[in-house]
């Protein structure tokens, strides 16, 4: 039976969550191409340079926070219902959706306010040109911070619905192992609970009172530290859903079976343990943090490479298994025996390939010394467009081609556009990201409307600056086309009539080595959460204590309006 | 959008200074005798003295619609030509003196781009109205009074609210300055600005660099001596705030001054003034739009939104995307309603509202079934090994990339 008929209520929830995600993707991609054309000087007619930050904030928030969170909520909702074989608790799950949606609208409206002259609403200028990292002392309208807080609270409530499903399932199946997909969802959510504490404290205790005028000063270092306490784990919150897809669905799309279920569990537990005590690697250049703690963060970060390398091995091995089951022989020629014409498969594979490239620039970012070479240059956006911008985003789009028919009961439409779409995105991103990396090495800054300076000329190590600009513009444009193609396919599919025989099949075969071979301790959430918290206390306790010791709001800084 | 944001940041950073200068014209605010009591967009008199032509918008936002003159009250020098320009909004407007005065644009017109002008030769106060909308508060006044405008030395006089214009009129000050190329360097983004004294120029080390610089109120400007070209000093032209004392030649000497008030500040090095060693600091401006120089000027700002073609396109697409879920819902509804009854497989008529049957594609059976023990991922091992080698090489390369094709840090 098709998912939509087995779980009609949960299907409706997943559809709603995806719809919000897709709208955010559309607006975000539009802002993305505006930026790419603006900062390269190709076309500056859409916005004035003074409004560049408004667009950049919209892009970062809508894509990195809204698109991701809503898509993940939809994917997790599907994964839990699918693997536990039950409808999700509707009341909790729907309140989560509405809380997140309210937050999104508040945040989006305050950002857009900056484009229409920042009208005064409730005594504060309606604008939020503070970028998706919302660092103090840049200040936004209170509605922006309240919206951000609601998005996070909503995601917590959504997590509750997944846990409640598990408890119900457990009471009926006391002795079984937690199904892999649910295990992955819950491990991710535990990491999310632990790590969002930082940003929740930042927003609720400091930024909201500050933007309302209840407190005059905030300590920028303390709030930045709280942000990055959350800011690194959030990248795993984006990535782990992609891993869920790569581990549990991609092998099937390749025609094979997952190589090892226990290995997958180990990887997710490693993320739960290590994702958070690494945030200082985003603050290598911040004064006021002892370099010893930066060093601990660097070491942890290098350990964190391990689960991703294990993932690379397991996922590729599972895909190879698929090719062999299709009859492939030879050392590497099996790569040709894969369904490259199926958009779901091709998209996931290309996303994984880009992620491997992102792994390289990530290693550079993580090195305490070499980081100085590229810090705050456009290298950094070059890096994370490979990770969240492709490894996550392209996987999300690709798996939609497989999932949306199941949650709607409608055949995928516009098959030829869909087939081409992952390749367009891949080429666009290869062009844009490569040029961004090289431009960053030449010292060109990120977050800049017109990166040109009097009496100073950037010099590329490989290629000329003019050529890099053109590539960023062309790549950005191709990406926009790629996003538009995806949205056309989705719109046409969602509007189509249900019925008939779908092109997808939902059966997920058993892993080659199943969960029975793995130690039961892997499923012991209490233990892992306790260890995760302990590691965080070691990494963050002393530096946070010293920041608070000189006064909660000191050294304070008054707001900078932007 | 009317207000450059960088400018705005700078302006707000010097809020205290602005609060003081924003009302600096208060001591000379003319008495209009209640004329502006019911005019919503009246916000003090805008001093535009020193300009040859001054433009007033007809049909600007205000008085609950497009029923305002902008600026409502303006002060100009004798001999100034004042041009009224129609926005095309708010219906037909005209410009007619209150009582018997010189102004009369004729009957009301609504066409955008219409202009009417009058040159004011004699001093005095000239009140005028738009006859059709007088009752709504569409009233204005031109005050003609001598005095200096934007070119006023040392920040005295006019342009207090807006600061000097984009291309300040230096009145020939830079005519013999060789290193002045006609541009005023914009440093309104900086809290402190440095000017070097004894830079190359004027046939020797007799220049200030940059010679002309624009800063926001509250900015500290520091002059730093290069030690070249003999003894220099920094002294205001006429009576101004700058005076570094006698000429010194020591390299590294500094002199600084924080500029609080808007205006154009000219200065020179007294010993080398005749060689062309002259400079100017422009404080404040150019603030485009409706004179929103006050600290929280966003309300006024809102009225000045003008979008170009591409900007319309952008805002339109964003709005459309924002409401697309609604459009979507409507489209879905319509499709549902328009659905015809269908024949089921067995030939019986299904209820039009019942869900149509769907089924999944058949599971594709593997050509060869490979179990756990028969499978050896040797291709994967090769790929992963290749990746390790590649990433290692790139990493080594990165460490040396700094040294390729450029001067090394240690050399
Ligand atoms: C249509 C495709 C896209 C294009 C053309 C695009 C383009 C850009 C460009 C040029 C920048 C750099 C701006 C600057 O630093 O001055 C940027 C920043 C950014 N992009 Fe994208 N991007 C796209 C898709 C995405 C996606 C899918 C994501 C995440 C899911 C994403 C997340 C971000 C983030 C978080 C930033 C940083 C914002 C900041 O610095 O505050 N982008 N994008
Ligand atoms: Cu990180």
Automatic annotation (TrEMBL), chain A:
Q: Give one Pfam family.
A: COX1
Q: What is this protein called?
A: B(O/a)3-type cytochrome-c oxidase subunit 1
Q: Where in the cell is it found?
A: Membrane
The membrane topology of this protein is: Multi-pass membrane protein
What are the protein's UniProt keywords?
Electron transport, Heme, Iron, Membrane, Metal-binding, Respiratory chain, Transmembrane, Transmembrane helix, Transport
Q: Which SUPFAM superfamilies match?
A: Cytochrome c oxidase subunit I-like
The family annotation for this protein states: Belongs to the heme-copper respiratory oxidase family.
Q: Which GO terms describe its molecular function?
A: cytochrome-c oxidase activity; heme binding
A single GO cellular-component term from the record reads: membrane
Q: Which PANTHER family match?
A: CYTOCHROME C OXIDASE SUBUNIT 1, CYTOCHROME C OXIDASE SUBUNIT I
Taxonomic lineage per UniProt? Answer: Archaea, Methanobacteriati, Methanobacteriota, Stenosarchaea group, Halobacteria
Report the transmembrane regions from the record.
18-38, 58-80, 92-122, 142-163, 183-208, 228-250, 262-282, 302-323, 344-364, 384-404, 416-436, 470-489, 527-549
Chain ranges of the Cytochrome oxidase subunit I profile domain: 18-503
Q: Which GO terms describe its biological process?
A: aerobic respiration
Question: What is the predominant subcellular site recorded for this chain?
Answer: membrane
- InterPro entries (UniProt xref): Ba3-like_Oxidase_I, Cyt_c_oxase-like_su1_dom, Cyt_c_oxase-like_su1_sf, Cyt_C_Oxase_1, Cyt_c_Oxase_su1_BS
Any keyword Transport? yes
Automatic annotation (TrEMBL), chain B:
In this chain, composition skew of type Gly residues spans 149-160
One matching Pfam family, short form?
Copper-bind
Ordered alphabetically, the record's keywords are: Copper, Electron transport, Membrane, Metal-binding, Periplasm, Transmembrane, Transmembrane helix, Transport
Q: Cofactors per UniProt?
A: Cu cation
Q: Which domain of life is it from?
A: Archaea
- Where is the chain membrane-spanning? 312-332, 381-401
Residues annotated as region Disordered? 146-176, 338-367
Q: How is the cofactor bound?
A: Binds 1 copper ion per subunit.
Q: Where in the cell is it found?
A: Membrane; Periplasm
Q: Which residues bind Cu cation?
A: 232, 269, 272, 277
Question: Major place of localization?
Answer: membrane
Q: Which residues form the Blue (type 1) copper domain?
A: 58-144, 198-283
GO CC annotation? membrane; periplasmic space
Q: Where is the signal peptide?
A: none
PROSITE patterns, sorted: COPPER_BLUE, TAT
Name any one GO molecular function. electron transfer activity
Q: Which PANTHER family does the entry link to?
A: PLASTOCYANIN MAJOR ISOFORM, CHLOROPLASTIC-RELATED
What protein name does the entry list? Halocyanin domain-containing protein
Its taxonomic path starts at: Archaea, Methanobacteriati, Methanobacteriota, Stenosarchaea group, Halobacteria
